[in-house]
Amino acid sequence: MNLYTCPCCEAQIKKTNVTHKLFDVLHKWETNGIVLSKSTWGNYPNNITLTLYKCNNCDYGVFLPMTIGSDAFYTDITLHEYYLTDRWDFHVAIKVLRSAKSHSVLDIGCGQGAFLDMVTKQLPNISCHGNDANSAIREKLPQGVALHTDLQDAPSNLDAVTLFQVIEHVSDSVSLLKTSIAKLRVGGLLVVSVPDHSGPIRFFADSHTAIPPHHVSIWTPSSLNSLLDKLGLKILIQKWEPLPDYLMETYLPKILSHKLGCLGNPSWEARIQHFLANPIIRFCFKFKIKYLPFRGHTYLIVAQKRDLA
Ligand SMILES: [Zn+2]
């Protein structure tokens, strides 16, 4: 079948020419320093071809057949501290919870609890719940955080539910968002962050970190806004991460080449990197400038549950 309906805006999703062989992607992880265990390889016995399907209306994308990261795959890639703990989206969410005077929060896909650790330190009056299928993380979570390995067991009527860089990893993001919304009280806040594929990530669309089994769907502000609107939420806040220092070396040469109309011309891109991007980056590192005013990696949205009664 070549046609699907977009879960965000209900336009048609069409097959693109973008394909990846699964084994090539797994080998790419290994050439980038991640050793994949036998169990991980065992989870992916066939070298299937992953094809990108895209909505031309809202830019939502999904790779089919659906191939998500197995538990063994995530164990392998997190061994190398792939995940940052001090993140822009966490800081934005803390401000949101503080100004909303939230008393309870559930962090879905909480991992080792980096965000909930920030909440317990900065907003000690909030009761914290984490959801993660991996029960082994229980001992790593900050004291006082309740872990629910099954999301259905988490309490309802919450003031806030957060999903940081989660929905792009799961096979059914719509149903996960519906369950998340069901956990909120009326007037409660849903905070969602995603890699923004309308930002500079689009220059690295073939990166092994942006395709299955790691990321199975592709999000833009337009697709996420459409979906949350369709699910009945009121969009309150939209935020774009500025370009952070740790991504400058990768993103800035491409961003500047794009702005100067030289993207795709290797010799001009090399000159822009050498004479423009590198001096700017050295300046930022010397003077400890943490962000540049270009679009960075992440888009974050805060939406409110309406009273549908
Ligand atoms: Zn769409």
Describe the structure.
- The protein is α/β, with parallel strands linked by helices and 309 residues long.
- Among the domains are: 88-195 and 231-242 and 299-305, Rossmann fold (3-Layer(aba) Sandwich), CATH 3.40.50.150; 245-293, no CATH class.
- Helix content is 33%, strand content 28%.
- The chain has helices at residues 22-31, 38-43, 71-78, 88-99, 114-122, 173-182, 221-230, 245-259, 266-286; strands at residues 3-5, 12-21, 49-55, 61-64, 104-108, 127-131, 146-148, 158-164, 184-195, 217-218, 233-244, 291-305.
- The protein has a seven-stranded mixed beta sheet with strand order 7-6-5-8-9-12-11. A five-stranded antiparallel beta sheet has the order 1-2-3-4-10.
- Strand 3 (49-55) and strand 4 (61-64) form a beta hairpin.
- Helix 8 runs antiparallel to helix 9 (266-286).
- The protein is globular, with a radius of gyration of 20 Å.
- The two termini are 39 Å apart.
- Bound molecules: zinc ion.
